Amino acid sequence: MAINLKTPTVETREQRLGTIIGWDGTASALAEESAFSRGDCGGCGPSGRGGGKARRVCELTGPFTQGSVCSEQMVETQAGNVRDAVLIQHSPIGCGAGQVVYNQRFRNGCKARGLPVRNVRFISTNLRERDMVYGGADKLDAAIRAAFERHKPAAIFIATSCASGIIGDDVDSVARHAEAKLGVPVIPVHCEGFKSKHWSTGFDAAQHGVLRQIVRKTPAKKQDDLVNVINLWGSDVFTPMLKELGLRVNYVMPLSSVEELAQMSEAAATVSFCYTLGSYLGTALEQEFGVPQIKAPQPYGFPGTDALLRELGRVTGREDRAEAYIAQEHARVKPKIAALREKLRGVKGYVATGSAYSHGLIEVLRELGVEVDGSLVFHHDPVYDSEDPKQDSLAHLLENYGDVDFFTVGNRQQFQFYNLLQRVNPDFIIIRHNGLAPLAARVGIPAIPLGDEHHALGYQGMINLGESVLAVLRHRKFHQDIARHVRLPYKTSWLREKDPFALARAQAS
Amino acid sequence: MALLALKPRAAAETKPEAAEATHIELVRYVCAIGAMQSAAAIPRVVPITHCGPGCADKQYMNIAFYNGYQSAGYGGGPVVPSTNASQREVIFGGADRLRELIESSLKVIDSDLFVVLTGCIPDLVGDDVGSVVRDFQKRGVPIVYAETGGFRGNNFTGHEAVTQAIIEQYLEPWDGTREAKTVNLWSLLPYHNTFWRGDLEEIKRLLTGIGLKVNVLFGPDSAGVSEWGDIPKAGFNLVLTPWLNLSTAKLLQEKYDQPFLHIPVLPIGARQSAAFLREVAAFAKLPKKRVEAFIEAEELRYYNYIDGFTDFYSEYWWGLPAKFAVAGDSAYNLALTKFLVTQLGLIPAKQIVTEDPPLEYRDAIRDEFRRIDHDVSVEVEFIEDSYLIHQSLRAADFGQKPPIIFGTTWERDLVKEMKGSLVEVGFPASYEVVLSRSYVGYRGALALLERIYSTVVSHSA
Hints:
A: 509 residues, six-stranded mixed β-sheet, 22 helices, B: 461 residues, five-stranded parallel β-sheet
């Protein structure tokens, strides 16, 4: 289904991709139920249009739910961390709480990339009770003017909120008028938390706004050696890697500048470390501007990294350099990985992260000989926007590394996490999102918090992750000690429950 | 069972300024549902949030995690029970969904008391949360609710909505003989104040030292809901903040005829601590002998350490700041300013109160700052927008020496620009790890001195 950039509002993930947030079974069964299911997806539509499979995967929903994350938070990570833009949060003050977390990540991300460190530029319109009655358009206009006068930004983003959405403020027309007056893009990003059940829609919402109002529509020049890399705040592993192919990196979106976003349409290709994050932007850049999205597995483990580099080499006409680099890296890392495999023999891991990222991390752990028989992904997309089976990250995992017996889709539900861990009893977990590692810690299991999303990527990533596993296993001393002294807030009857989805199944029957 | 939730302030009362002044860059408080962490600050109490899918995560991540890296507590954090309200609840209402969530929470969560907090969505679509919760209350389920939609107020007013919800909906009527020597302590805002756990512990230690039994109510030293059940039995309430908790104390006075003592300045250091203890002792009619003996013992220890600090303070070659500024909420701002002026002899250059205190309390706050010491009067400013706060700090006269600023993470860049020192003392403090550290009382003052001068000295080379 083509991406529609004509409307200011992005289509939610559940509309576009059939995203679900509750499922439990084997990874192979999930792949089987998903529209992608390797090689069978040509033209799969919302209801199996074009002969492909339907995007309907049976979803488990239960009566008990714990706090999730909203789309607006993802807009904070994306639009809010563009270096020379300002993000206005058109909301009551509580949505502005996110300024604190994304400030910390922005500052530390800038420092890691060698960029000047400073605070984020976020302004909350601070909607109050009377604005709920009379509307908040004037306040929004005032905030846009303040943003412009204070910071002279190259672009202004406006994130909507549940409150502004319910009262029906016409954010689009305020933005349009301001843009005409100020002469810089003023970009409404529609990200009301209640509109999508999964926060990843927020990535798409921010990228949608950038595609509509920042990316140069008619590129004056083509930059044949420039590659868009869709990422977060991670360390700069792409520059040295792509240098080997004679390519330059254009990192988007957090930590990028507005000009770096504008030039995305001039690039030779787009890659990403994670198709959950990169699905929308990569596909839209190809559809609207002819920038090829690299159709390959994600760059984890040998098969994924090899395939991605080869495809990048092919698309940019640098096959020979890609082959040389692959050979050189294989020779460099294989002895080190062999040594790590020795040390990691018999160790069992568990991955609890976003969907596509989890597929990649399991691959790396299996390269290292670490046993992984369980994983929790926070959502599942039965297909990515490209609809190209070469991006079917779950199928890639299954084909190259085998099944995962306990594969769970759950939207960061900590109460289930205890039962999930009991089923597989891992020695450590890998995690990025907050809310689950503290539970693991309290039952004696240490966590590797992958703040640097590039840590496990590519050839060196296998070594990095292996060393992190060895280090975190030492943490067990701390965790086993704490496990003896704390209580969880869950009833004993629930902790004894073998089926993490017992409540959902009881409700369904 | 009238609910004294957030008092909506009339438009005319909110701000004298025009609409331009109302947006806020870089927030220093969050919204009323942030008070879910006030509920979680009571041992074995669990918040249930009826709100959009990101509200609980945002409030926790910001006021508890990236603010000193405090933990979620027993039942708080980003994964508290939540309806994660969706389009369906917006269109059709969320009361049934809330009922289902509470029912299932009873099966899963081991809690002494649930506190239902609402976000913008149910408050805007008009869910009758009260009637849902009352049904459970009638069944004997320990549960209360507070309306804490983000547009109704901030986490300070939300905090009082939670405490008053517990008092109104959970505490039993009581008219027995009161325990004269027991006090309910109403002080710092849990979690939002980065050091609240250590500070409450120190205040409790001081009050216990002069012979009081203390219901500390929040934090690791509290006995939890049983202690809340004992609230009416206490001899009096002690409100130890410039304005927060005053309306709660008035509610208790009304409901139980229970008197309260209001001391606006949190004590830091020996002089303030002694004055504080004597004032409380006089109110509680405690025997002087024990009070003075305790103060004497504490002072002996305190001044022994201060004596050790004297060499550094008088002989350090490389320059110490003479002037300071504080940007923070009224409670800590007032306490720090009082200590730094009266005990260290530092000169206040700028004091900015950042939590938007209700207008009716502002004159009293101004007065406290005006009589910081017999020879020092400070004109405090009330600003919430960090851009304006930084402009005001830049405009202050810090003299020749590099300034020291007591503020938040937001001041990191500003302080580099001004070539000064920063001590992060309030929300958000994203570059501090805080476990039991306290900056109040006798012991906290010593920790504060260590922090201030370690920061200054570490900049010297």
